[in-house]
Amino acid sequence: MAEVEQGCELFSAGHRACGGCGPALAARLLLKATGKNVIIASATGCMEVFSTPYPETAWGVPWIHSLFENVAAVASGIEASLKRQGRSEKVVCIGGDGATFDIGVLCISGAFERGHDITYICYDNEAYMNTGIQRSGATPYGASTTTSPPGACAPGGNPLPKKDMPAILAAHGAPYVATASIAYPNDFVQKVERAINTPGPCYIQVHTPCCTGWGFESGETLAMAKLAIDTGLWVNYEMVDGKVVKAKKVRRKPVEEYLAKQKRFRHLFKPARRDDVIANIQAIADANAERFGIDIKRKESSE
Amino acid sequence: MLEFMEGSHAVAEIVKRCRPQVIAAYPITPQTHIVEDLAQMVANCELDAEYITVESEFSALSACLGASAAGSRVYSATTSQGLALMFEVCFNVAGMRQPIVMTIANRSLGAPLSIWNDQQDSISLRDSGWLQFYAEDNQEAVDLHMIAYKVCEDHDILLPAFVCFDGFILSHTYEPVALPGQEEVDAYLPAFTPYQRLDAEKPLSFGMYATPEYYTEFRYETDRALYRAKESFIKAGREFGEQFGRDYSALVEGYRLEDADTALVAMGSICGTAKDAIDEMRDAGKKVGLLKIRTYRPFPGPEIADALSGVSTVAVLDKNISLGGGGAVGTEVKAALYGSGAAVYDYIIALGGRDVRKRDVAAVVDLAEKGKGDMFYGLRTEVL
After folding, report:
1. pLDDT at A1
2. Cα distance between residue B236 and residue B243, in whole Å
3. Which residues pair with A65 in a beta bridge?
4. For residue A78, pLDDT beyond 90
5. Whole-angstrom Cα distance, residue A10 to residue A58?
């Protein structure tokens, strides 16, 4: 346990994240939204490691890390303890996509089913980045990772679609579920504010591109996050009581514009174009657009 | 006043009087009666606690960790497979120095599946940093819970503890038990004062990662705290004796050891059977005694060596097996007695609920005195 030096930012600079780290920006925005009256429970992962090398910490709010897969259970206990003591701090979990989509599902399901008043933030960079870019349940179809590499028998890289975690948590009866992106910081901050002020378990999945894992220049993080939205491969939406109530509309670009800028999709263009895989990815974007109604039609303006 | 009640119910009654603020537990035989009783107490407004009906033992202990870090006194109970599922969290709780008390209704580990008693579960967590106390009977089980909270919450200790009592043999057995009243418990065990807690008024980071420059020192500090817990236990056990008339100031307890040539060493309910067997052997002229280990962690090595200094033969009854390495208690007793000249033999006994009778204890003593040991006792060779 280490003393915290309070600066003007609750998530202070000087941590060990890579230059251009999407999750680091999400952490900073998260604490702008929560303010000081919060307790953060963190899963093991990039963010935990780069922000708390003993005896230093980047967290200007109370923060706890236990294990990779138990953050929602730890938060359940914190929430129960605060309730018993009549305290007012909000309880917020942070986990990467591996902790959230894969290894931590049991604990998350339990916490959401029991209805604890917690907010769970998944920073989704679409693979296990802390261990060196392995496939998770959040890795998109067609992406190359070190455990879903393209090869003669697997020309497309990752053969499986991204798990629909927001739908799983909405099905638990979560009153508020949202997706967000660091490309739209005000939107993310507003969604966090709404989540922490909504009684019961709420979930926000924020898209946080990883320049190291995805293979793009560190100055391009926000541009990459925005391209994901502009192509329809990531949709920013809100679900209230299980129903989609709002989704960000876009004038969609072809997915190829997004794919071609990232090394994790390079195998779709070199040594030979994989039009079949690219077409499948375009179909995913088209299905997203259909499901969420995000295409801007004539005379309609962006939200 | 003595009351006749089931062991699990007695444990639940004393846990209630220890005023845990958060309870998180998952049902598993033979622990279930404890957490059922506590749930009913919460439902009846007899116990003012948050009761979290978690979806697994893994989450039970994880929730306890969060609640403890946030400043509450917490409680859980488990056994066997449930404790095995908590393995990762156990190490974490001890490393994070959270004073959590958990009852273990000792049970064997599968495969093969067995719901019956031995001590493989808690002994397998011997390296986790939890204090481990073993009860011989239900009175001791009750009393050790109060002592455990006192030792764990000592700001010089800050460690978690297992209070172990044998599944079914104690947990489901009705015995007369003296249950201290609420005011008496409050007088012995003050309200929980966390050393540090998660608090927006004073932000701290808990559970940071340590590089090679710091990791060893964290382990050293935790190890020192376990050894310091000896003194804390002795003090808490003495205070307990002063208030309640039952003294627990000894980490190990001798029975008819004064002039013994042969000593049995054991933990838990088997000690009761051993004492009766010893009485009969004494009547027959055999100089036999028992050394009961109450605190397996911290391991009372010097205390064992001291208590057994006049003994020539030692027979350890191990209700566990470190497969490929012998009984866990026997191994450590041998280390404690290294150089003493005593012949120390280990007996793997009472696994998976196999009953141990007085004649079995006597047979073990005979084996040891004949120099035969380091073996499974009572193997049914016809089914091998």
Report:
1. 45
2. 11
3. A42
4. yes
5. 8
Same domain flag for B234 and B367: no
Whether B188 and B112 share a structural domain:
yes
Which of A3, A53, A74 comes nearest B63 by C-beta?
A: A74
Tokens read off for B366:
């005979």
In chain A, the domains with their CATH numbers are: 22-292 (3.40.50.970)
Nearest CA in chain A to B74: A81
Tally of domains in chain B: 2
Q: ipTM, 2 decimals?
A: 0.97
Decide the pairing of beta strands B22-25 and B50-53: parallel
B222/B283 same-domain check: no
Contact at CB, B214 and A54, closer than 8 angstroms: yes
Cα B281 to the chain's mean position, in Å?
Answer: 28
Decide if B55 touches A, using CB distance below 8 A: yes
Rg (CA), chain B: 20
Chain A residues 200-259 with CB within 8 Å of chain B: none
- Tracing tokens 């809100």 back to the chain, one arrives at A238
| Whether residue B90 sits in one domain with residue B14 | yes
Give the 3-state secondary structure of residue A1.
coil
* pTM of the shown model: 0.97
The answer to whether the CB atoms of B92 and A66 lie below 8 A apart is yes
Domain boundary among B202, B223, B244: B244
Q: Cα(A186)–Cα(A178) distance, rounded to whole angstroms? A: 14
Length of chain A: 303
Residue B131 sits in the same domain as residue B208: yes
Task: Name which of A118, A242, A225 is nearest A177 in CA terms.
Answer: A242
pLDDT digits over A235-290, tens only?
999 999 999 999 999 999 999 999 999 999 999 999 999 999 999 999 999 999 99
The CATH number given to whatever domain includes residue B260 is 3.40.50.920
Are A80 and B58 a contacting pair at CB < 8 A? Answer: no
Are residues A232 and A286 in contact, defined by beta-carbon separation less than 8 angstroms?
yes
3-state secondary structure of A243: strand
Buried b (16+ CB within 10 A) or exposed e, B325-338: ebbbbbbbbbebbe
- Distances from the Cα of B230 to the Cα of B145, B151, B154, B195, angstroms: 16, 9, 12, 20
State which of B197, B214, B244 marks the end of a domain: B244
Same domain, B8 and B154: yes
Residues B228 and B326 in one domain: no
The answer to whether B78 and B25 have CB atoms below 8 angstroms apart is yes
CA distance A158 to chain B (A): 31
Model pLDDT for residues B107-164, shown as the tens digit of each residue: 999 999 999 999 999 999 999 999 999 999 999 999 999 999 999 999 999 999 999 9
Contacts of B19 in chain A (CB under 8 A): none
Are B257 and B204 members of one domain? Answer: no
Of A57, A77, A79, the CB nearest to B62: A77
CATH of residue B101's domain is: 3.40.50.970
Whether residues B54 and A73 touch (CB distance < 8 A) is answered with yes
Residue A124: its H or E element: strand A118-124
What CA–CA distance (Å, rounded) separates B54 from B61? Answer: 9
A77 reaches B (C-beta below 8 A): yes
Write out the residue range of the structural domain in which residue B328 sits: 252-383
Measured CA to CA, the distance from residue A236 to residue A257 in angstroms comes to 19
**A105 interfaces chain B, CB cutoff of 8 Å:** no
pLDDT score at A298: 65
Answer yes or no: are the C-beta atoms of B116 and B108 closer than 8 Å: yes
What is the token pair recorded at A9? 């930012």
